[in-house]
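Internal ticket #5521
Category: modeling
Description: The requester needs a full-assembly model to guide mutagenesis choices. All entity lines are attached below as received. Residue total reported by intake: 413.
Assigned to: D.W.
Attached entities:
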Amino acid sequence: MAEPITHAASNAAPSETPSALNPSAPNTLTKIWRYFLPLAIFAGLVWFLYKGLSLNPREVPSALINKPVPEFKLALLQDGEKSLSPADMKGQVWLMNVWGSWCVSCRYEHPVLNELAKQQLVPIIGFNWKDQPEDARDWLKKFGDPYAKSVMDRDGRVAIDFGVYGAPETFVIDKTGMIRYKHTGPISPEDMKNIIVPLLQDLKKT
Amino acid sequence: MVKAVNILSLLSPANNLKNKQISAFPSIIVLNAAPVLAFYLKKWVIAILLACALSANVFAQTATPPMPPMPLDLELRLKKLETELRCLVCQNQTLAESPAGLAGDLRRQIRLLADSGKSNDEIKEFLRVRYGDFVLYNPPVSRKTYLLWFGPFVLLAGGATIAFLMARQRRLKLGGPQPTISEAEQKRADALLKGDDEKKKYDDRKK
């Protein structure tokens, strides 16, 4: 006789037989969902974590894309009496490559730049960052000089305006003096062939 | 730097107190000494930090002139500001603590800007324009950072909604068609809930 009452009381805990009380009990499909939902969430989490593994945290998107190239006037590496400013490059597409003789990755990248210089597609301006002029000149003698001109930023002040945080870094600047692309780290032959050269060709057409 | 700390700490009165504390000094005195100790320690830590900053500057400035000395309050203001800025080379270090060359350049630039009367916000903006939001440890609220800022609250709201729905479903199940019982059964149930004595009375009456 006491059965129904005690049964109802125990129902406060999760019921194992909801159908007994509720005629519209969840059908099997929604029941299965209940078990697969955590699995689905877990799979999503794994996907995000896996994706995160292949991202490079060192690659900080430049704040200067589609912004005018920062103004500067820096002495040339080969002739300290002369200087260069971005205004001198107006009307042509150019590449600005940040490098230093102390920079190991620059050495790795250098043949790629030499190759591009041979093609004479666009002038490459070397941005010699925090370096000793003698060391820099020696370095270019040793590994070849792909630069139309090299400027010296000895105290790193102008590099800050470019948002430079490591070498090598390469900026693509269009005819109107807008920064169109920034490559962080050494340019691989593939990057040059697949990204930079096509972009330069595009920009030259406009 | 290690050497400097050692020498300074030998000279420091705070350190003398600390040594005594270690050598079974009566604890009550140590308790009294704690605020004094903290005060001295604070002063010395600042002095050591300043000494390090100054000497580091001398070494770093091979190509540029050394920074002029700064008033203490400005120095402290900039030190605090630098802890809110990210060093882009080490990425997980602040500008204040990073030994990278670029961090030194940026600290110098910050000092020059502060010296020319720029506020903290103006200095932050100077860096943000050049290095992007990444340089700020406290990212601004923008369309890009909505998920970062509000994502946790959305998750909380979602979880609360699910919990609420589950609770309601359970309540509906319990509130649904209840087993009906007769008046006599109800009475017996009440009696049972009241206790054995009541039950006995009921049973007696039934007889």
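Resolution: model delivered.
Comment from assignee: Residues 1-21 of chain A have pLDDT under 50 and may be disordered.
Ticket closed.
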